[in-house]
Amino acid sequence: MTPVFIRIFRRIGWGQFISDGGPDTHHVKKGTPTMGGLVVIVGVILSYFLAVTLSGYPISLPSLLVLFMMAGLGLVGFIDDFIKTHKRRSLGLRGWPKVIGQVIVAAIFGLVAINFPDENGVTPASMSISFIRNTHFDFAALGAGIGLIAFLVWIIIIVTSTSNAVNLTDGLDGLATGASIFTIGSFVIMNFWQQNQSCFSPRLDPQVAYKCYEVRDPLDLAIIAAAIVGGLIGFLWWNTSPAQIFLGDTGSMALGGALAALAILSQTELLLVILAGLFVIDTG
What we know:
This protein is mainly α and 284 residues long. The protein has one domain. Helices cover 62% and strands 3% of the residues. The protein has helices at 2-12, 37-55, 61-87, 95-113, 144-169, 175-196, 218-239, 248-265, 272-275, 277-283; strands at residues 128-130, 134-138. Strands 1-2 form a two-stranded antiparallel sheet. It starts with a helix and ends with a helix. The relative contact order is 0.19.
């Protein structure tokens, strides 16, 4: 459906504006349809709910949290893109209003993620800092009030850093899209592995039980990650050089949000620095 969106975006004037301070070669991109992230977001949401409906599989809270983060930050990016196209300039939201939007979405995500335990008493997220699984540093040990505030600050740092890093990387045709396919695609593999080695799986070998993962609904996270990768592969066909449509801040911030949510819910927060190495280097 991406070509249909391209024609619609051209018709309503959602085209890219180029900063006068940039290279002259970039001016040929002026008018290229932007806000293509809407295509990816809609595709992911429709594919996920269609999949669970047809399979009769229950909808899980971790999956909804990833979709919330993706759509929430996509909305912040959409406001930014809409101001650019409406006022016909390369600058949309100022820096602080954009960060405030990210902070609000991240804080809501964090509050919901440490509540609503399942039948095993596991919440979608843990208040421990994680690498390949939770470490011994637990914000809950700081006390109820201080621990919660510190945890939310930690979540906000992860979300704002990741979403802005993907946003900054989205400067060349297909770069952020292609890099996101590999980065988010890694969660398909990791979450599937976590599902097979889940502490709550009756199939787990007791001899390796000490290496198990206490991640909540890892298979659902793998499905969401796969849906995002599928949407990005379809989008990349039209986003690769010469791009016929751009992600825009709508897409880049949504992808950064989804990436952050997957890392938090998969208990691989610090591992994100390695997985998203290209985004880290580009931001640096």
